[in-house]
């Protein structure tokens, strides 16, 4: 069997830990997240500390995942300004692109700005309302929805800058279900 780049991407995964080392996340193609707490640490968190740990683990995980994809493809990460003005404008807008995802319960919201800034919103009391397993599933779903939102917005952005001639419903992705005060 021929080992293609896509085969290697599908088999790859990245594991990262939170700054306090009490959370681990695994990111695998196409951006699926699995989150786990060290035994007995979930009840020890308050919403503020957990939010910080989740934001950091998402930022590091997405950066490492992107680096891994570039490595598999035999490319270095892009640096500096591109010679093509369309690509420069596209990259500038990509750096400001805001994506949002909500957990099914709407107790957790995740926002990504550009490629590196992540924000997590936890409704007060969420850690008492959701047990550890439910929380990890809800958080992973919020991230999956964010990535879906981002993918649709990236397609629309590519159409805007590179004239992909996409239908109107693709060019204007739907709004998130409700606004979140960050």
UniProtKB/TrEMBL annotation:
This is Uncharacterized protein. It comes from the Bacteria.
């Amino acid at each position: 069997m021929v080992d293609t780049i896509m085969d290697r991407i599908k088999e790859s995964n990245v594991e990262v830990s939170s700054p306090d080392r009490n959370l681990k996340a695994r990111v695998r193609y196409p951006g699926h997240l699995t989150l786990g707490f060290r035994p007995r640490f979930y009840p020890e968190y308050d919403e503020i500390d957990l939010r910080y740990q989740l934001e950091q683990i998402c930022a590091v995980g997405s950066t490492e995942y992107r680096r891994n994809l570039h490595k598999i493809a035999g490319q270095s990460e892009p640096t500096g300004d591109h010679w093509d003005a369309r690509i420069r404008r596209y990259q500038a807008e990509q750096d400001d692109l805001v994506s949002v995802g909500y957990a099914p319960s709407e107790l957790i919201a995740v926002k990504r700005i550009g490629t590196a800034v992540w924000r997590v919103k936890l409704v007060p009391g969420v850690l008492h309302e959701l047990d550890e397993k439910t929380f990890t599933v809800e958080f992973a779903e919020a991230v999956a929805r964010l990535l879906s939102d981002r993918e649709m917005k990236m397609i629309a952005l590519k159409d805007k800058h590179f004239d992909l001639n996409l239908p109107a419903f693709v060019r204007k992705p739907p709004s998130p279900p409700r606004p979140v005060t960050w």
